[in-house]
Design brief:
Elements lengths: L29 H13 L2 E6 L5 H9 L9 E2 L21 H10 L5 H4 L4 H7 L13 E5 L4 H4 L6 H16 L3 E8 L3 H5 L2 H5 L3 E5 L3 E2 H9 L8 E2 L3 H9 L1 E5 L5 E5 L2 E2 L1 H14 L6 E2 L10 H20 L3 H12 L9 E2 L4 E2 L2 E2 H9 L3 E6 L2 E6 L5 H10 L9 H11 L3 H14 L4 H16 L3 H18 L2 H20 L2 H5 L4 H16 L4 H13 L3 H14 L4 H13 L3 H13 L4 H21 L1
Parallel strand pairs: 1-4, 1-5, 2-3, 3-4, 7-11
Antiparallel strand pairs: 6-10, 8-9, 12-16, 13-14, 15-16
Helix pairs in contact: 10-11, 12-13, 13-15, 13-16, 14-16, 17-18, 18-19, 19-20, 20-21, 21-23, 21-24, 23-24, 24-25, 24-26, 25-26, 26-27, 27-28
Protein backbone atom coordinates (compact mmCIF):
# COMPACT_ATOMS: atom_id res chain seq x y z
CA UNK A 1 0.00 0.00 0.00
CA UNK A 2 1.30 3.43 -0.93
CA UNK A 3 0.87 6.27 1.50
CA UNK A 4 -1.73 8.91 0.62
CA UNK A 5 -0.34 11.55 -1.72
CA UNK A 6 0.05 15.11 -0.52
CA UNK A 7 0.15 14.24 3.19
CA UNK A 8 2.40 16.39 5.31
CA UNK A 9 4.95 14.67 7.53
CA UNK A 10 3.20 13.89 10.83
CA UNK A 11 6.20 14.63 13.06
CA UNK A 12 7.82 18.06 12.98
CA UNK A 13 11.24 17.34 14.50
CA UNK A 14 13.10 19.26 17.24
CA UNK A 15 11.42 22.63 16.96
CA UNK A 16 8.35 24.30 18.50
CA UNK A 17 4.99 23.60 16.87
CA UNK A 18 3.53 26.48 14.90
CA UNK A 19 0.09 27.46 13.62
CA UNK A 20 0.37 25.27 10.53
CA UNK A 21 1.25 22.25 12.72
CA UNK A 22 -1.98 22.43 14.71
CA UNK A 23 -3.48 19.36 13.02
CA UNK A 24 -0.65 17.13 14.30
CA UNK A 25 -0.33 18.70 17.75
CA UNK A 26 -1.24 15.86 20.10
CA UNK A 27 -0.51 14.82 23.65
CA UNK A 28 -1.79 17.80 25.60
CA UNK A 29 -5.26 17.32 27.07
CA UNK A 30 -7.96 19.26 25.28
CA UNK A 31 -9.48 20.31 28.62
CA UNK A 32 -6.19 21.92 29.69
CA UNK A 33 -5.97 23.88 26.42
CA UNK A 34 -9.53 25.14 26.81
CA UNK A 35 -8.93 25.95 30.47
CA UNK A 36 -5.97 28.21 29.63
CA UNK A 37 -7.92 29.78 26.76
CA UNK A 38 -10.83 30.56 29.07
CA UNK A 39 -8.54 32.03 31.72
CA UNK A 40 -6.92 34.24 29.07
CA UNK A 41 -10.23 35.61 27.86
CA UNK A 42 -11.69 36.02 31.38
CA UNK A 43 -8.69 37.32 33.35
CA UNK A 44 -6.66 40.43 32.56
CA UNK A 45 -3.24 38.78 32.83
CA UNK A 46 -2.40 35.06 32.95
CA UNK A 47 1.04 33.45 33.40
CA UNK A 48 1.73 29.95 32.08
CA UNK A 49 5.05 28.67 33.39
CA UNK A 50 6.98 25.43 33.17
CA UNK A 51 10.44 23.91 32.78
CA UNK A 52 12.57 24.66 29.71
CA UNK A 53 11.51 22.40 26.85
CA UNK A 54 8.11 21.57 28.35
CA UNK A 55 6.35 22.80 25.20
CA UNK A 56 4.98 26.20 26.24
CA UNK A 57 5.46 27.81 22.81
CA UNK A 58 4.00 24.79 21.03
CA UNK A 59 0.99 24.79 23.32
CA UNK A 60 0.35 28.46 22.55
CA UNK A 61 0.74 28.35 18.76
CA UNK A 62 -0.72 24.93 17.96
CA UNK A 63 -3.12 24.43 20.86
CA UNK A 64 -4.47 27.57 22.52
CA UNK A 65 -4.61 29.97 19.56
CA UNK A 66 -6.40 27.47 17.25
CA UNK A 67 -9.02 27.06 20.01
CA UNK A 68 -9.90 30.78 19.84
CA UNK A 69 -12.63 32.20 17.63
CA UNK A 70 -10.37 34.74 15.96
CA UNK A 71 -13.31 36.38 14.17
CA UNK A 72 -14.83 37.53 17.47
CA UNK A 73 -11.67 38.99 19.04
CA UNK A 74 -8.62 41.02 18.03
CA UNK A 75 -5.78 38.50 18.41
CA UNK A 76 -2.40 40.22 18.15
CA UNK A 77 0.68 38.47 16.74
CA UNK A 78 2.60 36.59 19.43
CA UNK A 79 5.35 38.84 20.76
CA UNK A 80 8.56 38.75 22.75
CA UNK A 81 10.30 41.32 24.96
CA UNK A 82 13.82 40.95 23.53
CA UNK A 83 14.85 41.71 19.97
CA UNK A 84 16.61 38.43 19.37
CA UNK A 85 18.91 35.78 20.80
CA UNK A 86 22.56 36.58 21.26
CA UNK A 87 22.14 40.28 20.59
CA UNK A 88 24.01 42.88 22.62
CA UNK A 89 22.26 45.65 24.50
CA UNK A 90 21.27 48.54 22.22
CA UNK A 91 23.81 51.31 22.24
CA UNK A 92 21.35 53.89 21.02
CA UNK A 93 18.21 54.38 19.01
CA UNK A 94 15.46 52.98 21.23
CA UNK A 95 13.25 54.28 23.99
CA UNK A 96 12.37 51.20 26.03
CA UNK A 97 14.01 48.17 24.42
CA UNK A 98 11.41 45.72 25.78
CA UNK A 99 8.45 47.76 24.54
CA UNK A 100 10.12 48.28 21.18
CA UNK A 101 10.74 44.56 20.85
CA UNK A 102 7.12 43.68 21.64
CA UNK A 103 5.88 46.30 19.17
CA UNK A 104 8.24 44.96 16.49
CA UNK A 105 6.32 41.66 16.69
CA UNK A 106 2.92 43.35 16.68
CA UNK A 107 3.86 45.44 13.62
CA UNK A 108 6.89 43.71 12.05
CA UNK A 109 7.12 45.91 8.96
CA UNK A 110 7.80 49.09 10.92
CA UNK A 111 11.37 50.30 11.33
CA UNK A 112 13.15 51.13 14.59
CA UNK A 113 12.63 54.84 13.89
CA UNK A 114 8.86 54.33 13.74
CA UNK A 115 8.81 52.35 17.00
CA UNK A 116 11.47 54.22 18.94
CA UNK A 117 9.35 56.23 21.36
CA UNK A 118 6.00 54.50 20.98
CA UNK A 119 4.42 53.14 24.19
CA UNK A 120 2.22 50.07 24.31
CA UNK A 121 -0.85 52.18 25.11
CA UNK A 122 -0.10 54.61 22.26
CA UNK A 123 0.06 51.74 19.79
CA UNK A 124 -3.04 49.93 21.01
CA UNK A 125 -5.10 53.12 21.00
CA UNK A 126 -4.00 53.91 17.45
CA UNK A 127 -5.06 50.58 15.97
CA UNK A 128 -8.52 50.64 14.42
CA UNK A 129 -10.50 47.69 15.72
CA UNK A 130 -13.92 46.31 14.84
CA UNK A 131 -16.84 46.74 17.22
CA UNK A 132 -19.04 44.00 18.58
CA UNK A 133 -22.80 43.90 17.97
CA UNK A 134 -23.34 46.25 20.92
CA UNK A 135 -20.94 48.87 19.56
CA UNK A 136 -18.20 48.14 22.10
CA UNK A 137 -14.56 47.47 21.29
CA UNK A 138 -13.85 43.78 20.78
CA UNK A 139 -11.57 41.93 23.19
CA UNK A 140 -7.84 42.31 22.49
CA UNK A 141 -5.80 39.17 23.19
CA UNK A 142 -2.03 39.63 23.46
CA UNK A 143 0.39 36.76 24.09
CA UNK A 144 4.04 37.26 25.05
CA UNK A 145 6.27 34.21 24.66
CA UNK A 146 9.58 33.63 26.49
CA UNK A 147 8.74 36.35 28.99
CA UNK A 148 11.79 35.36 31.06
CA UNK A 149 13.80 37.47 28.58
CA UNK A 150 12.54 40.51 30.50
CA UNK A 151 14.79 39.38 33.36
CA UNK A 152 17.68 37.87 31.41
CA UNK A 153 18.23 40.10 28.35
CA UNK A 154 20.05 43.43 28.46
CA UNK A 155 21.46 43.30 32.03
CA UNK A 156 22.90 46.81 31.59
CA UNK A 157 19.35 48.08 30.98
CA UNK A 158 17.81 46.53 34.10
CA UNK A 159 16.02 49.78 34.96
CA UNK A 160 13.95 49.46 31.77
CA UNK A 161 12.31 46.27 33.08
CA UNK A 162 10.20 48.15 35.60
CA UNK A 163 9.40 50.86 33.05
CA UNK A 164 8.16 48.21 30.61
CA UNK A 165 5.95 46.60 33.24
CA UNK A 166 4.57 50.04 34.10
CA UNK A 167 3.67 50.44 30.41
CA UNK A 168 1.99 47.03 30.42
CA UNK A 169 0.03 47.79 33.59
CA UNK A 170 -1.00 51.20 32.21
CA UNK A 171 -2.26 49.57 29.01
CA UNK A 172 -4.30 47.08 31.07
CA UNK A 173 -5.75 49.90 33.19
CA UNK A 174 -6.64 52.19 30.28
CA UNK A 175 -7.86 49.51 27.87
CA UNK A 176 -10.36 47.26 29.71
CA UNK A 177 -10.70 45.08 26.61
CA UNK A 178 -7.00 44.05 26.76
CA UNK A 179 -6.15 40.56 28.07
CA UNK A 180 -2.52 39.40 28.29
CA UNK A 181 -1.08 35.89 28.36
CA UNK A 182 2.60 35.47 29.26
CA UNK A 183 4.68 32.31 29.01
CA UNK A 184 7.92 31.95 30.95
CA UNK A 185 10.33 29.42 32.31
CA UNK A 186 9.59 28.12 35.76
CA UNK A 187 12.90 29.25 37.24
CA UNK A 188 11.98 32.87 36.53
CA UNK A 189 8.54 32.77 38.13
CA UNK A 190 10.07 34.28 41.28
CA UNK A 191 11.27 37.27 39.22
CA UNK A 192 7.70 37.87 38.10
CA UNK A 193 6.33 37.46 41.62
CA UNK A 194 8.37 40.46 42.71
CA UNK A 195 5.59 42.42 40.96
CA UNK A 196 2.79 40.30 42.43
CA UNK A 197 1.19 43.24 44.24
CA UNK A 198 0.64 45.04 40.94
CA UNK A 199 -0.40 41.83 39.20
CA UNK A 200 -3.06 40.94 41.75
CA UNK A 201 -4.70 44.34 41.28
CA UNK A 202 -5.39 43.34 37.67
CA UNK A 203 -7.12 39.94 38.00
CA UNK A 204 -3.95 37.87 37.66
CA UNK A 205 -3.89 34.06 37.40
CA UNK A 206 -1.17 31.53 36.73
CA UNK A 207 -0.94 27.92 35.63
CA UNK A 208 1.95 25.47 35.61
CA UNK A 209 2.74 23.37 32.54
CA UNK A 210 4.36 20.03 33.36
CA UNK A 211 6.39 17.79 31.05
CA UNK A 212 4.46 15.14 29.14
CA UNK A 213 3.30 12.13 31.11
CA UNK A 214 3.82 8.71 29.56
CA UNK A 215 0.15 8.58 28.53
CA UNK A 216 0.41 12.02 26.93
CA UNK A 217 3.60 10.90 25.18
CA UNK A 218 1.79 7.87 23.78
CA UNK A 219 -0.91 10.16 22.37
CA UNK A 220 1.78 12.42 20.86
CA UNK A 221 3.36 9.36 19.24
CA UNK A 222 0.18 7.78 17.85
CA UNK A 223 -2.12 10.77 17.25
CA UNK A 224 -0.23 12.41 14.34
CA UNK A 225 -0.40 9.16 12.31
CA UNK A 226 -4.16 9.50 11.84
CA UNK A 227 -4.86 9.59 8.11
CA UNK A 228 -1.31 8.66 7.08
CA UNK A 229 -1.97 4.97 6.45
CA UNK A 230 0.46 3.79 9.12
CA UNK A 231 0.12 2.49 12.67
CA UNK A 232 2.27 1.03 15.44
CA UNK A 233 2.26 -2.67 16.26
CA UNK A 234 0.35 -3.51 19.43
CA UNK A 235 2.13 -2.22 22.53
CA UNK A 236 4.95 -0.58 20.57
CA UNK A 237 3.78 2.96 21.36
CA UNK A 238 3.86 2.14 25.09
CA UNK A 239 7.35 0.69 24.78
CA UNK A 240 8.55 3.77 22.92
CA UNK A 241 7.06 6.10 25.54
CA UNK A 242 8.77 4.09 28.29
CA UNK A 243 12.15 4.29 26.55
CA UNK A 244 11.72 8.03 26.00
CA UNK A 245 10.97 8.53 29.69
CA UNK A 246 14.37 7.06 30.57
CA UNK A 247 17.05 9.66 31.15
CA UNK A 248 20.80 9.15 31.44
CA UNK A 249 23.13 10.43 34.11
CA UNK A 250 26.91 10.43 34.15
CA UNK A 251 27.91 7.87 36.79
CA UNK A 252 31.33 9.55 37.22
CA UNK A 253 33.01 6.37 35.95
CA UNK A 254 32.93 7.28 32.28
CA UNK A 255 29.55 5.79 31.40
CA UNK A 256 25.93 6.87 31.36
CA UNK A 257 23.52 5.24 33.79
CA UNK A 258 19.84 4.91 32.70
CA UNK A 259 17.27 6.24 35.17
CA UNK A 260 13.52 5.59 34.55
CA UNK A 261 11.12 8.50 35.11
CA UNK A 262 7.40 9.07 34.58
CA UNK A 263 7.72 12.06 32.22
CA UNK A 264 8.95 12.69 28.66
CA UNK A 265 10.70 15.76 27.23
CA UNK A 266 8.70 16.94 24.18
CA UNK A 267 11.80 17.88 22.16
CA UNK A 268 13.30 14.42 22.68
CA UNK A 269 10.05 12.77 21.61
CA UNK A 270 9.90 14.90 18.46
CA UNK A 271 13.52 14.13 17.54
CA UNK A 272 13.07 10.37 17.89
CA UNK A 273 9.69 10.27 16.11
CA UNK A 274 10.84 12.26 13.09
CA UNK A 275 13.99 10.14 12.88
CA UNK A 276 11.86 7.00 12.87
CA UNK A 277 9.54 8.39 10.19
CA UNK A 278 12.43 9.43 7.94
CA UNK A 279 13.86 5.89 7.99
CA UNK A 280 10.65 3.97 7.26
CA UNK A 281 10.20 2.25 3.86
CA UNK A 282 7.81 4.16 1.61
CA UNK A 283 5.12 1.43 1.37
CA UNK A 284 5.18 0.34 5.02
CA UNK A 285 1.89 0.22 6.95
CA UNK A 286 2.61 -1.41 10.32
CA UNK A 287 5.58 -0.05 12.28
CA UNK A 288 7.43 -2.84 14.10
CA UNK A 289 10.08 -2.76 16.83
CA UNK A 290 12.96 -3.21 14.38
CA UNK A 291 11.88 -0.02 12.57
CA UNK A 292 12.49 2.13 15.63
CA UNK A 293 15.79 4.04 15.82
CA UNK A 294 18.16 3.28 18.65
CA UNK A 295 17.24 5.65 21.48
CA UNK A 296 20.20 7.03 23.34
CA UNK A 297 21.00 10.02 25.48
CA UNK A 298 18.93 13.07 24.44
CA UNK A 299 21.90 15.22 23.39
CA UNK A 300 23.29 12.39 21.26
CA UNK A 301 19.96 11.93 19.46
CA UNK A 302 19.69 15.65 18.75
CA UNK A 303 23.27 15.79 17.44
CA UNK A 304 22.61 12.86 15.11
CA UNK A 305 19.45 14.56 13.83
CA UNK A 306 21.35 17.80 13.18
CA UNK A 307 24.08 16.03 11.21
CA UNK A 308 21.50 14.19 9.06
CA UNK A 309 19.59 17.36 8.26
CA UNK A 310 22.67 19.42 7.41
CA UNK A 311 23.93 16.53 5.28
CA UNK A 312 20.65 16.52 3.34
CA UNK A 313 20.69 20.32 2.92
CA UNK A 314 24.29 20.21 1.68
CA UNK A 315 23.34 17.54 -0.87
CA UNK A 316 20.49 19.73 -2.15
CA UNK A 317 22.91 22.65 -2.47
CA UNK A 318 25.73 20.58 -4.03
CA UNK A 319 28.21 21.85 -1.46
CA UNK A 320 30.40 20.10 1.16
CA UNK A 321 28.52 19.43 4.40
CA UNK A 322 31.62 20.46 6.38
CA UNK A 323 31.54 23.93 4.80
CA UNK A 324 27.85 24.30 5.55
CA UNK A 325 28.22 23.24 9.19
CA UNK A 326 31.13 25.58 9.82
CA UNK A 327 29.13 28.47 8.33
CA UNK A 328 26.03 27.70 10.42
CA UNK A 329 28.08 27.76 13.63
CA UNK A 330 29.84 31.00 12.66
CA UNK A 331 26.62 32.74 11.55
CA UNK A 332 24.13 31.62 14.19
CA UNK A 333 26.16 31.02 17.38
CA UNK A 334 27.89 33.87 19.18
CA UNK A 335 31.26 33.74 20.91
CA UNK A 336 29.62 33.12 24.27
CA UNK A 337 27.85 30.02 23.00
CA UNK A 338 24.41 31.64 22.63
CA UNK A 339 22.04 31.71 19.66
CA UNK A 340 22.10 34.75 17.40
CA UNK A 341 20.15 36.13 14.45
CA UNK A 342 21.44 36.88 10.96
CA UNK A 343 19.82 39.42 8.63
CA UNK A 344 18.71 38.17 5.23
CA UNK A 345 20.46 40.53 2.85
CA UNK A 346 19.21 41.38 -0.64
CA UNK A 347 21.60 38.84 -2.17
CA UNK A 348 23.55 37.07 0.55
CA UNK A 349 23.50 36.41 4.29
CA UNK A 350 26.68 36.36 6.33
CA UNK A 351 28.71 35.71 3.19
CA UNK A 352 26.52 32.95 1.72
CA UNK A 353 23.91 33.15 -1.08
CA UNK A 354 20.35 33.30 0.22
CA UNK A 355 19.44 30.01 -1.43
CA UNK A 356 21.35 28.34 1.41
CA UNK A 357 18.95 29.87 3.93
CA UNK A 358 15.99 28.57 1.95
CA UNK A 359 17.41 25.03 2.02
CA UNK A 360 18.13 25.16 5.77
CA UNK A 361 14.60 26.38 6.52
CA UNK A 362 13.23 23.54 4.39
CA UNK A 363 15.28 21.05 6.42
CA UNK A 364 14.11 22.64 9.71
CA UNK A 365 17.56 23.79 10.82
CA UNK A 366 16.71 27.51 10.59
CA UNK A 367 13.57 29.59 11.12
CA UNK A 368 12.71 33.08 9.81
CA UNK A 369 11.36 36.01 11.83
CA UNK A 370 10.25 39.52 10.81
CA UNK A 371 11.77 42.37 12.83
CA UNK A 372 12.13 46.09 12.22
CA UNK A 373 11.04 45.92 8.59
CA UNK A 374 13.36 43.03 7.60
CA UNK A 375 13.70 39.27 7.66
CA UNK A 376 16.03 37.65 10.20
CA UNK A 377 17.07 34.01 10.54
CA UNK A 378 18.06 31.97 13.56
CA UNK A 379 18.39 28.35 14.62
CA UNK A 380 15.03 26.64 14.86
CA UNK A 381 15.51 26.04 18.57
CA UNK A 382 18.05 27.19 21.13
CA UNK A 383 18.82 23.51 21.83
CA UNK A 384 20.45 23.34 18.37
CA UNK A 385 23.30 25.60 19.50
CA UNK A 386 25.26 22.76 21.11
CA UNK A 387 24.91 20.37 18.11
CA UNK A 388 25.90 23.19 15.73
CA UNK A 389 29.04 23.93 17.73
CA UNK A 390 29.94 20.26 18.11
CA UNK A 391 29.41 19.49 14.42
CA UNK A 392 31.50 22.46 13.31
CA UNK A 393 34.33 21.52 15.69
CA UNK A 394 34.33 17.96 14.32
CA UNK A 395 34.94 19.12 10.75
CA UNK A 396 38.42 19.49 9.37
CA UNK A 397 39.44 22.80 7.85
CA UNK A 398 39.35 26.48 8.60
CA UNK A 399 36.20 28.08 9.99
CA UNK A 400 34.08 29.90 7.45
CA UNK A 401 35.26 33.52 7.15
CA UNK A 402 32.79 36.02 8.60
CA UNK A 403 33.20 39.73 7.98
CA UNK A 404 33.22 41.22 11.47
CA UNK A 405 32.02 44.63 10.31
CA UNK A 406 28.98 43.15 8.58
CA UNK A 407 28.20 41.03 11.63
CA UNK A 408 28.59 43.99 14.02
CA UNK A 409 26.40 46.17 11.80
CA UNK A 410 23.61 43.57 11.73
CA UNK A 411 23.73 43.18 15.51
CA UNK A 412 23.51 46.95 15.95
CA UNK A 413 20.57 47.21 13.57
CA UNK A 414 18.71 44.38 15.28
CA UNK A 415 18.93 46.45 18.46
CA UNK A 416 17.53 49.53 16.70
CA UNK A 417 20.86 51.38 16.64
CA UNK A 418 20.59 52.40 12.98
CA UNK A 419 23.36 55.02 13.02
CA UNK A 420 25.74 52.62 14.76
CA UNK A 421 24.97 49.96 12.13
CA UNK A 422 25.63 52.41 9.31
CA UNK A 423 28.88 53.54 10.94
CA UNK A 424 30.14 49.96 11.24
CA UNK A 425 29.44 49.34 7.55
CA UNK A 426 31.39 52.46 6.63
CA UNK A 427 34.30 51.37 8.84
CA UNK A 428 34.33 48.07 6.99
CA UNK A 429 34.33 49.73 3.60
CA UNK A 430 37.40 51.75 4.60
CA UNK A 431 39.49 48.61 4.99
CA UNK A 432 37.76 45.90 2.91
CA UNK A 433 39.07 45.67 -0.67
CA UNK A 434 36.75 46.07 -3.64
CA UNK A 435 35.43 42.49 -3.44
CA UNK A 436 32.20 40.63 -2.85
CA UNK A 437 32.59 41.40 0.88
CA UNK A 438 32.47 45.12 0.11
CA UNK A 439 29.42 44.47 -2.05
CA UNK A 440 27.68 42.81 0.89
CA UNK A 441 28.36 45.88 3.04
CA UNK A 442 26.91 48.13 0.34
CA UNK A 443 23.90 45.80 0.08
CA UNK A 444 23.29 46.18 3.83
CA UNK A 445 23.60 49.96 3.59
CA UNK A 446 21.11 49.88 0.73
CA UNK A 447 18.67 47.77 2.71
CA UNK A 448 18.88 50.12 5.69
CA UNK A 449 18.25 53.11 3.41
CA UNK A 450 15.29 51.32 1.80
CA UNK A 451 13.70 50.56 5.18
CA UNK A 452 14.20 54.18 6.20
CA UNK A 453 12.53 55.32 2.95
CA UNK A 454 15.61 56.91 1.31
CA UNK A 455 15.13 55.25 -2.09
CA UNK A 456 17.79 57.10 -4.07
CA UNK A 457 20.46 56.24 -1.50
CA UNK A 458 19.29 52.62 -1.44
CA UNK A 459 19.49 52.39 -5.23
CA UNK A 460 23.04 53.83 -5.22
CA UNK A 461 24.29 51.21 -2.75
CA UNK A 462 22.47 48.41 -4.55
CA UNK A 463 24.06 49.35 -7.87
CA UNK A 464 27.54 49.39 -6.31
CA UNK A 465 26.88 45.95 -4.83
CA UNK A 466 25.64 44.75 -8.24
CA UNK A 467 28.85 45.97 -9.85
CA UNK A 468 30.93 44.06 -7.28
CA UNK A 469 28.96 40.88 -7.95
CA UNK A 470 29.36 41.30 -11.72
CA UNK A 471 33.12 41.80 -11.33
CA UNK A 472 33.32 38.61 -9.27
CA UNK A 473 31.11 36.66 -11.69
CA UNK A 474 28.74 35.80 -8.81
CA UNK A 475 25.40 35.10 -10.49
CA UNK A 476 23.53 34.48 -7.24
CA UNK A 477 24.49 37.89 -5.86
CA UNK A 478 23.78 39.56 -9.21
CA UNK A 479 20.31 38.04 -9.22
CA UNK A 480 19.69 39.16 -5.65
CA UNK A 481 20.78 42.74 -6.28
CA UNK A 482 18.73 42.97 -9.49
CA UNK A 483 15.71 41.72 -7.53
CA UNK A 484 16.33 44.40 -4.87
CA UNK A 485 16.62 47.11 -7.51
CA UNK A 486 13.50 45.85 -9.27
CA UNK A 487 11.50 45.88 -6.04
CA UNK A 488 12.75 49.39 -5.33
CA UNK A 489 11.74 50.57 -8.82
CA UNK A 490 8.29 49.01 -8.43
CA UNK A 491 7.90 50.78 -5.09
CA UNK A 492 8.71 54.12 -6.69
CA UNK A 493 6.17 53.42 -9.44
CA UNK A 494 3.56 52.51 -6.85
CA UNK A 495 3.78 55.97 -5.32
CA UNK A 496 4.02 57.77 -8.61
CA UNK A 497 0.76 59.33 -9.82
CA UNK A 498 1.54 58.52 -13.46
CA UNK A 499 2.41 54.95 -12.50
CA UNK A 500 -0.96 54.53 -10.81
CA UNK A 501 -2.82 55.98 -13.76
CA UNK A 502 -0.85 54.01 -16.33
CA UNK A 503 0.02 50.49 -15.27
CA UNK A 504 2.41 50.16 -18.18
CA UNK A 505 4.45 53.24 -17.32
CA UNK A 506 8.19 53.43 -17.90
CA UNK A 507 8.82 53.01 -14.18
CA UNK A 508 7.02 49.67 -14.05
CA UNK A 509 8.72 48.72 -17.31
CA UNK A 510 12.12 49.24 -15.70
CA UNK A 511 11.11 47.20 -12.67
CA UNK A 512 9.92 44.29 -14.87
CA UNK A 513 13.15 44.45 -16.86
CA UNK A 514 15.29 44.24 -13.71
CA UNK A 515 13.27 41.34 -12.31
CA UNK A 516 13.42 39.50 -15.62
CA UNK A 517 17.23 39.80 -15.68
CA UNK A 518 17.33 38.46 -12.12
CA UNK A 519 15.30 35.39 -13.11
CA UNK A 520 17.51 34.76 -16.13
CA UNK A 521 20.59 34.69 -13.90
CA UNK A 522 19.01 32.39 -11.31
CA UNK A 523 16.26 30.42 -13.09
CA UNK A 524 15.95 27.75 -10.37
CA UNK A 525 15.55 30.18 -7.47
CA UNK A 526 11.86 30.83 -6.64
CA UNK A 527 12.59 34.12 -4.86
CA UNK A 528 13.31 36.31 -7.95
CA UNK A 529 10.50 34.55 -9.81
CA UNK A 530 8.01 35.49 -7.08
CA UNK A 531 9.36 39.04 -7.10
CA UNK A 532 8.76 39.19 -10.86
CA UNK A 533 5.22 37.94 -10.32
CA UNK A 534 4.55 40.64 -7.72
CA UNK A 535 5.85 43.32 -10.08
CA UNK A 536 3.73 42.07 -12.99
CA UNK A 537 0.64 42.00 -10.76
CA UNK A 538 1.25 45.61 -9.70
CA UNK A 539 1.78 46.58 -13.32
CA UNK A 540 -1.72 45.33 -14.16
CA UNK A 541 -0.59 42.17 -15.98
CA UNK A 542 -2.30 39.38 -13.97
CA UNK A 543 -1.95 36.66 -16.63
CA UNK A 544 1.82 37.09 -16.74
CA UNK A 545 1.95 37.36 -12.94
CA UNK A 546 0.03 34.08 -12.68
CA UNK A 547 2.52 32.38 -15.02
CA UNK A 548 5.42 33.59 -12.85
CA UNK A 549 3.84 32.38 -9.63
CA UNK A 550 3.04 29.00 -11.14
CA UNK A 551 6.64 28.73 -12.28
CA UNK A 552 7.84 29.42 -8.73
CA UNK A 553 5.42 26.79 -7.37
CA UNK A 554 6.94 24.20 -9.70
CA UNK A 555 10.20 24.77 -7.79
CA UNK A 556 8.74 25.36 -4.33
CA UNK A 557 5.23 23.86 -4.14
CA UNK A 558 4.84 24.68 -0.43
CA UNK A 559 5.21 28.44 -0.81
CA UNK A 560 2.35 30.12 1.02
CA UNK A 561 3.18 33.46 -0.62
CA UNK A 562 3.06 32.04 -4.17
CA UNK A 563 -0.21 30.17 -3.57
CA UNK A 564 -1.87 33.26 -2.12
CA UNK A 565 -0.70 35.46 -5.00
CA UNK A 566 -1.89 32.85 -7.49
CA UNK A 567 -5.33 33.11 -5.89
CA UNK A 568 -5.28 36.90 -6.22
CA UNK A 569 -4.15 36.75 -9.86
CA UNK A 570 -6.87 34.23 -10.71
CA UNK A 571 -9.36 36.48 -8.94
CA UNK A 572 -8.19 39.40 -11.11
CA UNK A 573 -8.92 37.44 -14.30
CA UNK A 574 -12.27 36.22 -12.90
CA UNK A 575 -11.30 32.53 -12.72
CA UNK A 576 -13.04 32.15 -9.36
CA UNK A 577 -13.10 28.32 -9.09
CA UNK A 578 -9.33 28.10 -9.58
CA UNK A 579 -8.80 31.11 -7.33
CA UNK A 580 -10.75 29.47 -4.52
CA UNK A 581 -8.76 26.25 -4.92
CA UNK A 582 -5.47 28.17 -4.68
CA UNK A 583 -6.74 30.09 -1.64
CA UNK A 584 -7.68 26.84 0.09
CA UNK A 585 -4.18 25.47 -0.55
CA UNK A 586 -2.70 28.69 0.83
CA UNK A 587 -4.89 28.50 3.94
CA UNK A 588 -3.40 25.09 4.79
CA UNK A 589 0.10 26.63 4.72
CA UNK A 590 -0.64 29.91 6.51
CA UNK A 591 2.28 30.64 8.89
CA UNK A 592 0.18 32.19 11.66
CA UNK A 593 -3.34 33.10 12.70
CA UNK A 594 -3.01 36.69 11.42
CA UNK A 595 -2.50 35.79 7.75
CA UNK A 596 -4.84 32.81 8.09
CA UNK A 597 -7.61 35.27 8.94
CA UNK A 598 -6.78 37.33 5.84
CA UNK A 599 -6.92 34.22 3.66
CA UNK A 600 -10.34 33.31 5.08
CA UNK A 601 -11.63 36.75 4.11
CA UNK A 602 -10.36 36.18 0.56
CA UNK A 603 -12.05 32.78 0.48
CA UNK A 604 -15.34 34.33 1.61
CA UNK A 605 -15.09 36.99 -1.11
CA UNK A 606 -14.36 34.37 -3.75
CA UNK A 607 -17.35 32.25 -2.68
CA UNK A 608 -19.61 35.30 -2.98
CA UNK A 609 -18.32 35.99 -6.48
CA UNK A 610 -18.85 32.37 -7.44
CA UNK A 611 -22.42 32.44 -6.20
CA UNK A 612 -23.13 35.64 -8.16
CA UNK A 613 -21.51 34.13 -11.24
CA UNK A 614 -23.75 31.07 -10.93
Amino acid sequence: MTLPAGRAQPYIGPRPYGWRDRSVFCGRARRMILDIRDKWTASRIVAVYGPAGSGKSSLLHAGIIPAIDVDSVELLPVGRVALGPGAAAPAQGLGNVHACSLLSYWCPKKSAAQLRNLTLTDYLRGVSRPKDKYGDNVTILAAIDQFEELFTAYPSHWKQRGVFLDQLFTALDELPELHVLILLREEHLADLLAYEKDLLKRHYERQRLLPLTRDEAREAIVGPLDGHGRFFATGLDERLATELSTIYYDDSLGSLAPVPTDTVEPMRLQTVCVTCWDQLPGNLRQIEAHHLPRIGEARTDLYAWYRRRTEAAAADLSMPAATLRRWIAAAFVDQGGGARYALRGPAATRGMPNRILTALVHHQVLAAHHHLGCLWYGLNHSLLVAPAQRAAAAEQGVSHPMDRHLLAAEDAWLQGAVEAARHRCELGLDIVPETVAAGDLHALLGLMAEVEGVDDQAARHYRIALGQAEAAGDKFRQSGMLTALGTLAAGVARHDAVGRAQAGSDRYGEAVRLHTRAVELSPDDPTPIRALGACLAEAGRPQEALAAYRRSLAIDPDSFEALLECAKALDAIADYPQALQAAESAAALAPDHVVAKEVRRLQDDLRKRLSRQA
